[in-house]
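W.,

You were right to be curious about this one. When I first looked at the sequence I had no strong expectations either way, so I just let the prediction run and decided to look at it fresh. Below is the sequence, 354 residues in total, followed by the output.
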Amino acid sequence: MIKLSLVMIVRNEEKKLERCLKSVQALVDEIVIVDTGSEDSTLEIAKAYNVKLFQYPWNNHFSEARNFALSKSTGDWNLILDADEWVTKGNRQQLNTIMDNQQAIGRIRITSSFFDGEESYTHCYTSRLIPRGIFYKGRIHEQIDSALPRVDCELEVAHDGYYKTDKSERNLALLLSEIQDYPDDPYLHYQTAKEYYGISDYENANKHYVLSYTYLSGYENYYPNVVVDYLYNIMKYGNMQKGLEIIQSEETRMRDFPDFYFVCGLFYMNLVSSDVSKYLHLLLQIQSNYIKALEIGETSKYLTVEGTGSYAAAYNLGVFYETTGDTQEAIRYYKEAEKYNYRPALNRLAALNH
């Protein structure tokens, strides 16, 4: 019988830990929790679930803390979760199909909620089910240090750790420290850029997006996300000409990524609005990019923002048609977005009396 352990590191998670443990206790044979200095009731909550509990002095290094926790596991396999995550779908039998038959790393589907003017969601598959003897590397945004193949599990997890919270100060300090040791690492520069973007420091974000984009080999699984997020930052920071160059050079590589065409639609909308006389000839690029996003549809291949291949693209296309005077087409696409109960579309249809 294969033994599966849940392995966690926690600190001051009294508001979320029980939700996580309740969701996973039927899936695992052992729960290993390493606490890095809680000052609330986290430890008492953990003890109520009969966990193996250890203390680890926090040293600003996520991988070292995770690897200490992994060293305390007695499982043949380890499932890695954080306290702000909880299982929403899946069962042990499905996990056994991975653990019984494959020497591989299991990827679980994580849906993360965030607030960007409205509640939004990203979806991605992340490596979290690992055989004994596999460990992590990296001070922050740590990654599994293994060349084993990745396979997708039928396990779905929700995550709300970045919903209306600000961890940028802590994250930036760790990332900038790591960059001193690995100045040419595109992943570190990408994560640093995202942190600066999150606090609206678009100038510093741009510096790190440039470095990340420069150091990319082209084979990274996060390459498409660097391109898309770089374009979002360019719209905030400026240098739209650079954005045009990126779009033109990356379209072939991004041909199956709805988020790319979605951001291109926004980009051309901003570009045309900035100087109508100069960029009017690009007006139809707004339309064509949103249509391409809809043709691709939602994807599970990449880390993606929900709606870029469905309701958000349909709504923006409706706005385009309404703005250009084609009310019937606007209504058509608002109704497509309405199928997802997308409130902005409902509001526009109400305003148009449909």
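Here's what jumped out at me. DSSP finds 15 helices and eleven strands in the chain. And, maybe more interesting for your project: Residues 4-159 form a domain with the Spore Coat Polysaccharide Biosynthesis Protein SpsA; Chain A fold (CATH 3.90.550.10).

Coffee later to discuss?

I.
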